[in-house]
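> Could you send the NADPH-dependent FMN reductase-like domain-containing protein prediction when you get a chance?

Sure thing. Input:
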Amino acid sequence: MTRLLIVHHTPSPHCQAMFEAVVSGATDPEIEGVEVVRKAALEVSPSDMLAADGYLLGSPANLGYISGALKHAFDVCYYPILDSTRGRPFGMYLHGNEGTEGAENAVDRIAAGLGWGKAAEYVVVSGPPSKPDLEACWELGASVAAQLM
Ligand SMILES: Cc1cc2nc3c(=O)[nH]c(=O)nc-3n(C[C@H](O)[C@H](O)[C@H](O)COP(=O)(O)O)c2cc1C
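Output:
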């Protein structure tokens, strides 16, 4: 059994809708042998990160960056997991209303430092998530989970 860890900061109904769609895709019954674990970004520990085989990150874009909560997760975990999680796949969904480039670039840099492999294109949504947006979130969850089968 492999493990997919979803590290998310979910402060609003729009972020919650995206989170639920990602979880739904990741836990699709056709994906076998992958345990999906969800952790709030403010609660995740280095042990949680080390115990996973792949990662899904979810965050709003805040002040031109990832949320403070997801930043905190990496502040706490980065050095303890450095060199122990190299090569693991990850994906990310972002919600913003005013421009998400800073958050995307931040995760690019963090993942490059950790040596994580981008397993799918980021899903980025502005405003109320549409049906296609939520389908893209579902696909993101399913695609990253399927890569851990
Ligand atoms: C303090 C603050 C800063 C924010 N900065 C950004 C930003 O830089 N870029 C952006 O796209 N959205 C920004 N937002 C909007 C949030 O991303 C948005 O509120 C969040 O994704 C939840 O979406 P919702 O309020 O539509 O549910 C900011 C929100 C807050 C509260």
